[in-house]
Amino acid sequence: MAVEIGSLTLQSRLILGSGGASSHKVVLDALHASGAEVVTVALRRFRPGSNSSSLYQELADAGAIVLPNTAGAHTANEARTLAELGREALQTNRVKLEVVIDDRTLLPDPIELVEAAKDFVRAGFEVFAYTNDDPALARILADAGVAAVMPLGSPIGSGMGILNPANIALIVELLDLPVILDAGIGTASDAALAMELGVDGVLVASAITRATDPTKMARAISLAVQAGRDAWEAGRIARRPLAVPSSPLEGLPDFNLVG
Amino acid sequence: MELGGPATVPDLLAQIGAPSNGVAIAVNGEIISRSRWSETRVGDGDIVEVITAMQGG
Questions:
Q1: Closest A-chain CA to B32
Q2: What does R_g of chain B's alpha carbons equal in angstroms?
Q3: Which residues lie closer than 8 Å to A61 by C-beta, 6 or more apart?
């Protein structure tokens, strides 16, 4: 079933981050294997003499929706510059807003993030906001008018999975807005857990692009996203400390019968 | 870098081997929208930024 995230109507709940791939081909193969429709890209200086094939063109030719990010920004002003460049380069108002506190943790800077989110919304961007796993901050971003919040499971590229599942579930419960789990996914089960917590989608980059076999991992994570979504929609049973028998307790035979 | 004389933005992109899609250009600190590329000339002393989509997040 299709999911609406901002102005996007998607069949796949997996968004592919292109970072960490050893070549454009790895990204394209992962795109095909996963069925993802959206791919994020960063904006950087063109280096004369470098590979002049256009990643954007290759992704567009493959039918992907290319989402520029503001990775590399440490302030709201830097993020705005990257967002304007992304809007101009890719001819889209959509932007994945990232403003990090430092390069060691790559954790979102909440103060700069909120300032940038307000500024971007005023400037007509459709904002997909990469944020901490903090329900309060997610609410502030929602009130600022972003299209989706993208809480991290754990630091970018760490592969540590979802460190605070309760907060992710709370963000889903509190916000009347699409929630995309972004960052920290290490393997398929992490993506399934994210979906079981009720998020609308998952963004995965390193877990796929840096896997030993990126194409196979792309497929595995795509299946996990689908399985996790089905499980969320199906409604899991409650956790309880004691057993609930799955076989009837009545109608047991006389245990003194001799065989 | 040295170019073969003043050029329009599309000429410049061709000279440095950059793709024309998925690219943003700033000249002397100002982003030049695509619709103004062919009328914008760059020459000696101009500071040109050529930004393109790369693999990332």
A1: A88
A2: 11
A3: none
Q: CA angle A139-A203-A51, nearest 5°?
A: 130
- Order across the sheet with A126-131: list the strands: A94-97, A126-131, A148-151
pLDDT average, residue stretch A124-133:
98
Query: Minimal Cα–Cα distance from A207 to chain B, Å?
Result: 11
Phi, psi of A83 (to 5 degrees): -65, -40
Mind listing the pLDDT tens digit for each residue in A214-229?
Answer: 999 999 999 999 999 9
- The answer to whether A95 touches A125, Cβ cutoff 8 Å, is yes
Phi-psi region of A202 (alpha: psi -120 to 50; beta: other; left: phi over 0): beta
Distance of CA A93 to the CA centre of its chain: 19
**pLDDT tens-digit series, residues A57-74:** 899 999 999 999 999 999
DSSP state of B35: G
Q: Which CATH number fits domain A3-46+53-234: 2.40.10.120, 3.40.1700.10, 3.40.1080.10, 3.20.20.70?
A: 3.20.20.70
pLDDT at B2 over 80: no
Cross-strand pairs, B49: B26
- pLDDT category, B4, cuts 50, 70, 90? low
C-alpha dist (Å) from residue A118 to A70, B8, B23: 15, 36, 26
pLDDT given at position B54: 87
A contact test, residue of B30, B33, B47, B54 with most A CBs within 10 A: B54
A25 classed as catalytic: no
A253: tokens are: 């035979």
Domains, in order of start, for chain B: 7-52 (3.10.20.30)
| pLDDT reported for residue B19 | 85
- Kindly report which listed range (A111-115, A230-234, B4-8) carries the lowest average pLDDT score: B4-8
